[in-house]
């Protein structure tokens, strides 16, 4: 039997993020040598990168950075919550975020192709994939600019890193109202800023469905226009940030709250891990 302890297993799991059985097998093969076991995990992990490409990575975290009116938001995925809360995964996420900020990335493809210490970010992720033993990917990147940009990160589980991230850009007003709106975005997940941002075909389809539904319900013909308009407005209130009832004061819309504070919301981004 190889000469290693439970403490060695714990140390190797924490340093590599690898699973329990993989760590035990590596220590067995390395006869308890931690350095050699780490190398074994890396080599075997690299061989398995391709096999893991088709696996689902629905756990992970979000990271945000804001400086001088520029906000960057990244979502980095892994397969299990064990890895999501592993310090090495968090350090990797910090490195990826810093790179996204440095190169001004606006999408995952550009970020993955960018060079970091002589390697592409994709190669860095593949190495982490190998050592940790899970599929790791940068799913999304967003960049929001404005006179003032704030970020808000929310934990859906106190034992895990933030899994909802928001950036909000405003003109005028103070930081507090911008932060309140960012918290609202986290909770109510609007899809667009204004009604004009929704494709006309989508609106027309909602109008058609509303009319067909009203007819199916037996609503009187003369009442249809008003009913349809009300349901389409309901669609806007659900999806358009400025039309949503404000989380802290549902009697007012986000637009009314921002105007009363002397602010105008000019942009936002929201990521929720795995969604």
Automatic annotation (TrEMBL):
<dbReference type="InterPro" id="IPR036402">
    <property type="entry name" value="EF-Ts_dimer_sf"/>
</dbReference>
<keyword id="KW-0648">Protein biosynthesis</keyword>
<dbReference type="GO" id="GO:0005737">
    <property type="term" value="C:cytoplasm"/>
</dbReference>
<protein>
    <recommendedName>
        <fullName>Elongation factor Ts</fullName>
    </recommendedName>
</protein>
<dbReference type="InterPro" id="IPR001816">
    <property type="entry name" value="Transl_elong_EFTs/EF1B"/>
</dbReference>
<comment type="similarity">
    <text>Belongs to the EF-Ts family.</text>
</comment>
<dbReference type="InterPro" id="IPR018101">
    <property type="entry name" value="Transl_elong_Ts_CS"/>
</dbReference>
<comment type="function">
    <text>Associates with the EF-Tu.GDP complex and induces the exchange of GDP to GTP. It remains bound to the aminoacyl-tRNA.EF-Tu.GTP complex up to the GTP hydrolysis stage on the ribosome.</text>
</comment>
<keyword id="KW-0963">Cytoplasm</keyword>
<dbReference type="Pfam" id="PF00889">
    <property type="entry name" value="EF_TS"/>
</dbReference>
<feature type="region of interest" description="Involved in Mg(2+) ion dislocation from EF-Tu">
    <location>
        <begin position="80"/>
        <end position="83"/>
    </location>
</feature>
<dbReference type="InterPro" id="IPR009060">
    <property type="entry name" value="UBA-like_sf"/>
</dbReference>
<feature type="domain" description="Translation elongation factor EFTs/EF1B dimerisation">
    <location>
        <begin position="71"/>
        <end position="274"/>
    </location>
</feature>
<keyword id="KW-0251">Elongation factor</keyword>
<dbReference type="GO" id="GO:0003746">
    <property type="term" value="F:translation elongation factor activity"/>
</dbReference>
<dbReference type="InterPro" id="IPR014039">
    <property type="entry name" value="Transl_elong_EFTs/EF1B_dimer"/>
</dbReference>
């Amino acid at each position: 039997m190889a000469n290693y302890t439970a403490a060695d297993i714990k140390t190797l799991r924490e340093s590599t993020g690898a699973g329990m059985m993989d760590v035990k097998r590596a220590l067995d093969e390395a006869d308890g040598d931690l350095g050699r076991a780490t190398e074994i995990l890396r080599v075997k992990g690299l061989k398995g990168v391709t096999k893991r490409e088709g696996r689902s990575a629905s756990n992970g975290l979000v990271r945000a950075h804001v400086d001088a009116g520029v906000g960057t938001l990244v979502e980095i995925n892994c397969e299990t919550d064990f890895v999501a809360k592993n310090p090495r995964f968090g350090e990797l996420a910090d490195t990826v975020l810093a790179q996204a900020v440095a190169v001004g990335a606006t999408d995952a493809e550009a970020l993955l192709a960018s060079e970091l210490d002589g390697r592409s970010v994709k190669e860095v992720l593949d190495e982490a994939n190998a050592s940790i033993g899970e599929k790791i990917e940068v799913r999304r990147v967003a960049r929001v600019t404005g006179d003032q940009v704030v970020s808000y990160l929310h934990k859906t589980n106190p034992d895990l890193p933030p899994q909802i991230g928001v950036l909000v850009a405003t003109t005028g007003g103070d930081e507090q109202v911008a932060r309140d709106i960012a918290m609202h975005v986290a909770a109510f997940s609007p899809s667009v800023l204004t009604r004009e941002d929704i494709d006309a075909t989508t609106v027309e389809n909602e109008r058609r469905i509303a009319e067909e539904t009203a007819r199916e319900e037996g609503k009187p013909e003369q009442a249809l226009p008003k009913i349809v308009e009300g349901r389409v407005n309901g669609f806007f209130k659900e999806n358009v940030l400025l039309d949503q009832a404000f989380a802290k004061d549902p009697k007012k819309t986000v637009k009314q709250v921002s105007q009363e504070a002397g602010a105008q919301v000019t942009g936002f981004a929201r990521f929720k891990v795995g969604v």
